[in-house]
Write a structure and sequence with these properties.
CATH class of the largest domain: Alpha Beta
CATH topology of the largest domain: Alpha-Beta Plaits
Order of helices and strands: EEEHEEHHEHEEHHEHEHHHHHEHEEHEH
Radius of gyration: 25 Å
Number of strands: 14
Distance between the termini: 33 Å
Helix content: 25-40%
Structural class: alpha+beta
Shape: globular
Strand content: 15-25%
CATH architecture of the largest domain: 2-Layer Sandwich
EC number: 2.7.7.7
Number of helices: 15
Catalytic activity: DNA(n) + a 2'-deoxyribonucleoside 5'-triphosphate = DNA(n+1) + diphosphate
Cofactor: Mg(2+)
Largest sheet: 5 strands, mixed
GO cellular component, one term: cytosol
Active site: 148
Strand order of the largest sheet: 7-8-3-9-10
Number of domains: 3
CATH superfamily of the largest domain: Reverse transcriptase/Diguanylate cyclase domain
Length: 442
């Protein structure tokens, strides 16, 4: 994919053109070869090697690629009127549509938007294609999600015949040409700033943040730019009069830790651009879960139970396919006023069985079935490990062995004839909510 390209000039102050990759011999505003204004210049351009790559409006971009009629239209990928926005294209974002926004609010903001139901199987397939191209650059690829990853390009210059900065630009070109979507890239000396850089000039962005400028650059940014500072914590900091990272830079570590505990140490380090985390290619999943948003809010236990069972079966199927098990069962609920509840319970042994996930989740759910109307229900497992020691015989519950064998028989039939070939009494004949579509898997 990457042929060796001789670089007659590698002056970082002159940089190179992102469109034709030609190194520049002056600081002209446009490329001396193709006339493009997309010139990358930075004093540390050829000494940095840690990158973050993020696909632009990934789900929407894939849908536009596959349906050219959508190209110039606002597109929202999401789960219907009662769902939330998974991704909005940049045209829709101009109207104020954002990811995780309730669909009804998104359509109020952009009534002309075209809503497309998510096709996770397709997105995963495209994500794997992008990932394969990343791995052609370096084995040090740490996936963060289906559409973004960190890359450490140190030591790859001899392999590609190009410095990391040019390799990154050529990679973005290749993704656009071969896969038909665009990516934005950030280049820096640490993961924290590489991630920030990739968000700068979306879509088709390319930004560089060097070590020399890190402190002065961060001083002018809001505290919400620091990982872990969400809306709630930002309000805590605001009450203490802290809104900008520059204010954190003037504070002592002991003061910050005295106020905010472990988070205070993170504020101290990241506000100064100190981040020594390495790129870890073997980034294991932390949890496996599935969830669904209802068409109408549900309060009755009889209506919630079949949904919980169906989601438990989906989580179980994914665990079995991956050869892993989880020791902690996590229940997730969102009420009609969008307040989130999560409840969890640790098991004595890891499990991958739908029966055990469901029964544990059911016990947690009964405690929350207090008349509250819910718009979302989810179930999952965390504390993952391989399934070698999963679900040992239960000496107290003598029927558990029989239920496990029955579940194994059901799995065999479903593998052969499809997911709906066999159903339990919990879900049979219970309607759409008892059979959440595949794309709602988390």
């Amino acid at each position: 994919m990457f042929a060796v390209m001789a670089a007659p000039v590698n002056d970082p102050e002159h940089g190179f053109c992102r469109d034709c990759l030609t190194p520049q011999r002056s600081r002209a505003m446009r490329c001396e070869r193709c006339g493009s204004p997309r010139i990358v210049r930075h004093a540390e351009l050829y000494s940095l090697h840690l990158a973050h790559i993020d696909c632009d409006a990934f789900y929407a971009a894939v849908e536009k690629r596959d349906n050219p009629a959508l190209r110039d239209k606002p597109v929202i990928v999401g789960g219907g009127k009662r769902g939330v926005v998974s991704t909005a294209c940049y045209i829709a974002r101009i109207h104020g549509v954002r990811s995780a926004m309730p669909m009804f609010k998104a359509l109020e903001a952009c009534p002309e938007a075209i809503v497309v139901k998510p096709d996770m199987e397709k997105y995963v397939r495209v994500g794997r294609e992008v990932r394969a191209m990343m791995l052609a650059l370096t084995p040090l690829v740490e996936p963060i999600s289906i559409d973004e990853a960190f890359l450490d390009l140190a030591g790859t210059e001899k392999l590609h015949g190009l410095p990391p900065a040019l390799v990154l630009a050529r990679f973005a070109q290749a993704v656009e040409k071969e896969i038909g979507i665009t990516v934005s890239a950030g280049l820096s000396y640490c993961k924290f700033l590489a991630k920030i850089a990739s968000d700068f000039r979306k879509p088709r962005g390319y930004a560089v943040i060097g070590e020399e400028e890190a402190v002065s650059f961060l001083a002018e940014q809001p505290v919400t730019m620091i990982w872990g500072v969400g809306k709630a914590f930002a309000e805590v900091l605001a009450r203490d009069g802290i809104r900008m990272i520059g204010q954190l830079q003037k504070m002592e570590r002991s003061d910050l830790m005295g106020r905010y505990g472990v988070m205070g140490d993170r504020l101290y380090r990241l506000s100064r651009g100190e981040d020594d985390r390495r790129v870890h290619p073997d980034h294991d999943a932390k949890s496996v879960s599935a969830e669904t948003t209802f068409d109408t809010d549900i309060a009755k236990m009889d209506d919630l139970l079949p949904v919980l069972r169906a989601l438990s079966e989906k989580v179980s199927a994914r665990l079995k396919k991956a050869g892993i098990a989880g020791r902690t069962v996590v229940l997730k609920l969102k009420s009609q006023d969008f307040k989130l509840r999560t409840r969890n319970r640790q098991l004595a042994d890891p499990t991958r069985l739908a029966d055990r996930i469901f029964s544990t989740g059911l016990d947690l759910l009964r405690r929350e079935a207090d008349g509250t109307r819910y718009r979302l229900l989810g179930i999952g497992v965390s504390d993952l490990s391989d399934d070698e020691k999963a679900d040992p015989p239960d000496l107290v519950d003598l029927q558990s062995r029989k239920r496990a064998l029955a579940e194994g028989a059901i799995d065999t039939l479903r593998d052969k004839f499809g997911r709906k070939a066999v159903e339990t009494g919990y879900t049979f004949g219970k309607g759409r909510n008892a059979h959440p579509p595949e794309h709602l898997d988390d």
